[in-house]
Design brief:
Distance between the termini: 9 Å
Strand content: 15-25%
Number of strands: 18
Number of helices: 14
Structural class: alpha/beta
CATH architecture of the largest domain: 3-Layer(aba) Sandwich
Strand order of the largest sheet: 4-2-5-16-15-6-7-14-12-13
Bound molecules: NADP nicotinamide-adenine-dinucleotide phosphate, magnesium ion
């Protein structure tokens, strides 16, 4: 069989620990035999980030801007313990944070559903994709512990002109205080990423805030979304047969639970943080989630939603058998390859991605899976637990039947 040729390279970002092991195996077993893989390789593993003073992360993000599509392995975000373990000269920042800051995007996360593992919410028939605004609000807030009686004020000093003052509260005793912000530029690019992703994936878009209470702050989010929708997207949504729907956050959570799924839920930063954990848990597991960063100017970075699975890696280093789920990492590759195929007009690449994804689901639905899924399995046949390697080989066998 002739291998599929690519015309533009994918930006490939390698990572750490167990997912780095899976990364190499996925390429060797599931991709390279069928595709003449063209990638620009960046090693985002912690030792290389240390060696290059994290320049490699910046270079990888810049390459993504240039080439448009990247695929990323999970990476360690260093903490004090990692600084010691890897003898780091600095506590390097989260690569995802660095990449997001350069690409200015929104992260979309969706569960991968299989028959035999059912969502906790019985009426959810299709995936719910969460789009989280990843800038500002409480994550960039300034906080203050009020020691005792006094007046708290909100003061804005414009670059030109008089300062504006408002009383927040007259404290009669101790308390707490918080100042948060967002920007029209960031909210607008969040809105555009969401509308664009809805069009790309042909799904309705829901957005919700607490605008009835927060008449300036949250209302601004609502207004920006509406204005951008009306002026730039309404016609295209109509053409695609999809809808933009705004409601109050309280109403949204109730509707989400009663829904059948199959839409994108755009969330403010905090809502997205909390709701994505709830939705992913209710659907099954982080190892069964796709995750893609979409920038407003149309760059895509595909990754797994979970981390480097450290606990399994230490077992692997001791020579013990591991049963780590590779599905989210495989789907990062298929997402990126499909997008590359779409952009470059290579239908064979899109077709291959679809077949590989279908092979993954078929193996699980046939009762063979990794240990994490065996615990959730409700299928008719008893689950067969495979180690990571056996599981990848089972997927390859299934894929070959389809090619
Ligand atoms: P984690 O790697 O997601 O793993 C937490 C636990 O979840 C694992 O111990 C395992 O449970 C289960 N799990 C996660 N993914 C799995 C998979 N594919 N297959 C089977 N089980 C899976 O989170 P962590 O241990 O908190 O973080 C480890 C490192 O990852 C940290 O250094 C962190 O900075 C980094 N991280 C990176 C990203 C990213 O690059 N996107 C995201 C999050 C965390 P059992 O042990 O019970 O089997
Ligand atoms: Mg969270």
């Amino acid at each position: 069989m002739e291998r599929i040729k690519m015309t533009t390279p994918l930006v490939e970002m390698d990572g750490d620990e167990m997912t780095r092991i899976l990364w190499a195996d996925i390429k060797k077993i599931l991709l390279e035999p069928y595709i003449q893989l063209e990638t620009l390789y960046f090693d985002l593993g912690l030792p290389e980030r240390e060696r290059t003073k994290d320049q490699v992360t910046v270079d990888a993000a810049e390459a993504t801007k240039k080439y448009g599509v990247a695929v990323k392995c999970a990476t360690i975000t260093p903490n004090a313990q990692r600084v010691e373990e890897y003898q780091l000269s600095q506590m390097w920042k989260s690569p995802n944070g660095t990449i997001r800051a350069i690409l200015d995007g929104t992260v979309f996360r969706a569960p991968i559903m299989v028959k035999g593992i059912s969502p906790v919410v019985k009426n959810w028939k299709r995936p719910i994709t969460i789009a989280r605004h990843a800038f500002g609000d409480v994550y960039k807030s300034t906080e203050y512990k009020v020691p005792g009686p006094g007046k708290a004020e909100l003061v804005f000093t414009p670059a030109e002109g008089e300062a504006v003052r408002q009383t927040i509260y007259d404290f009669r005793g101790p308390g707490v205080l918080q100042g948060q912000f967002n920007t029209v530029a960031s909210i607008s690019s969040f809105a555009r990423s969401c509308f664009q992703f809805a069009l790309d994936s042909r799904q309705d878009l829901w957005f919700a805030t607490k605008d009835t209470i927060s008449k300036q702050y949250d209302h601004t989010f609502k207004d920006i979304f509406q204005e951008i929708y009306d002026t730039e997207y309404a016609a295209r949504f109509q053409e695609a047969g999809i809808e933009y729907f705004y409601t109050l956050i309280d109403d949204a959570v109730a509707r989400v639970i009663r829904s059948e799924g199959g839409f994108i839920w755009a969330c403010k930063n905090y809502d997205g943080d909390v709701m994505s954990d709830m939705v992913s848990t209710a659907f099954g597991s982080l190892a069964m989630m796709t995750s893609v960063l979409v920038s407003p100017d149309g760059n895509y970075e595909y990754e797994a939603a979970h981390g480097t699975v450290t606990r399994h890696y230490y077992k692997y280093l001791k020579g013990e058998e591991t049963s780590t789920n590779p599905i989210a990492t495989i789907f990062a590759w298929t997402g990126a390859l499909r997008k590359r195929g779409e952009l470059d007009g290579i239908p064979a690449l899109e077709e291959f991605s679809g077949k590989l994804e279908a092979a993954c689901l078929a193996v699980i639905e046939g009762g063979s899976m990794t240990k994490d899924l065996a615990g959730l399995w409700e299928g008719e046949v008893p689950a067969v637990t495979l180690n990571s390697r056996q599981f990848l080989e089972a997927i390859r066998d299934e894929l070959e039947k389809r090619l």
